Amino acid sequence: MELTSSQQRRAVAAAVSVASALLALLTHEPSGLLVAVATLGICIGWKTGLAAVVTTSLISALILLSPEYGTENGLVRFAAFVCGALGLWLVVKIFRTVGFYDRGPQGVGPSNSDTPGLGWSAYPDGHLRFLNPAALKYVGVTAEEIREIMYADDFYWLKFLHPDDVEASMARWQHSLETGEPMIEEKRLRRFDGTYRWFRDTAVASHDERGRIIGWYGHTEDIDDQRKAEAALRQSERELRLLVDTVPTMIWLMTPAGLPYYFNKRFVDWAGIDSAKEEPRGTRQFASHVELFHPDDRAAVKAVFQKSFARGEPLQHKGRLCRKDGEYRWIDSRFEPLRDEDGTILRWYGVNFDIDDEVRAQESLRLADQRLARALRAASLAELSVSIAHELNQPLQAVVANAGALQRWLNADPPNYNHANRVAQKIFKNADAAAQVISRIRALFGKTEGELRAVNLNAVIRDVCDLLCDRFASSSVKLDLHLDPRLPSTTADHVQMEQVVLNLVRNGIEAMEDVSINVRRLWIASRRQNEGTVEVEVRDRGRGLSDPERIFEAFYTTKPDGMGMGLAICRSIVEAHSGRLWAENVETGGASITFSLPIRAADSTKSAATVSASVGAFRG
């Protein structure tokens, strides 16, 4: 018969003890009481066994010293019985102690007591059989106390578990007892000071040669610090994930080969990526994400990305990406590799910025700039028209005045034909002067010949500044004129000189549009040089020139709406007049553009045809 629990063993021991006591009373032979002493001492405990010695000694005295039994050698036999009972009890006590400290460890191996952590063993039915010194020290009980606990209750050890872990731990232990499978669980054990710590409890069954379970051997490892570290790590990961998911940009990670394996929540919500249907991390093909780009951008995106991944270089790229609602929006993508100390790429970090609104705003600004450029060109045409009107105004007014005088002389009574004839001559001269203005304008826009005459550059500068006075006021530009009052005249085409000065002044005003209003100042100077030339310098306080020489090349411009022809035409005009035009940056800030012309008389200059042909050839 196999007794599978301490309750069964105690019940059988009690029955044997009662039976042996009855038999001793019925037969008047006290030796049978020794069975009760041994049974109680082994199965119940040494204290109970000691009480049994006292009790059975009293019973044996009643038997041995009773009149029915006889008094012959009764005291001697009683003493012998007491000594025998005490000796039996002492042997039981000794072997019970040895069985706990020696037999238990021998069953699990010679090093069980020295096993790191808490070591224990149990009988096949799960009844606790042994705890190593570390386990006894942790729970704060002695070997004697744990022995009593073990024989008092099969699962008394549950009192050391956290109340929340008792049910689950008992279920797993029962499952292992029924199936023979190893038990691995994590639970909280109460320490001697009342605090609970996390442990990983591992138990395996030992089998005999016939495969029967002969015992369970377990190891309980303290993992409380590990659990706390893991909890702190999980909390840190949650905070990092929260940070990554709430940062106002789309973040995604890629393997060293450039295969996407993580998208933050903002990216998932923006692109409508279904995380539940995503392939395992690091296996999703990059081509499937290239499909999110606009069809016109896919080939370029794929080529640029693959080149960057192959070389391990950072990447910045702009393209149109499809949002979950089907709208393509402009995205600024930037990627950086994370390397270890050896330079090996561990992963790629990518961020996507939705710049669609910015791109659309820039496009709107570009269109606005184009409209403004057209308006400026129209304004330039208006300024040119004002200049033309200024040139034509004087001869036409003279024509009108003389025509009125002619009419008066003819309407006189009698008509004064002599005065009328002189006035008519003046009208012819005035009309001829107007025709010359028209001729110079045609020379400006075509290949017709113009007229060279003595030109006062100071007067040209003042006329241009008067013409642009409204422009100076609207741009908040202050004008500084430093004109040499003794500047000699030079022979040139008056209209073309006005065009050169007008272009330089307008460029100077435009160069200061993006600087502070407090520093907007245009400085214009005229002076005579010793080598027989006159110079006109226009200096602004703008940002300066990135390439002072290229600005005179045809079609080269730094303005979004510029044609790159203004300064090129100016240089052509100045060089056609045997002069020179150049630009340079000023140390105090801004740029300076200067042209020089030789001081010469009309008879020593090139013909008007030569000048006009030179400029016209450039235009043609």
What is the annotated CATH architecture of the domain at 447-598?
Answer: 2-Layer Sandwich
Number of helices: 18
Distance between the termini: 125 Å
Number of strands: 17
What is the SS-derived class?
Answer: alpha+beta
User: Based on the structure, what is the oligomeric state of the protein chains?
Assistant: single chain
Structure keywords:
transferase; Beta-Lactamase; 620 residues; Heat Shock Protein 90; His_kinase_dom; transmembrane; alpha+beta; rod-shaped; disordered C terminus; 50% helix; 5-stranded antiparallel β-sheet; kinase; single chain; histidine kinase
Description:
- The chain is rod-shaped, with a radius of gyration of 57 Å.
- α2 (33-43) runs antiparallel to α3 (46-64), α3 (46-64) packs antiparallel against α4 (74-108) and α16 packs antiparallel against α17.
- The strands form four sheets. Strands 2-1-5-4-3 form a five-stranded antiparallel sheet, with helices on both faces.
- The protein is built from 18 helices and 17 strands.
- The protein has 620 residues and is α+β, with helices and mostly antiparallel strands.
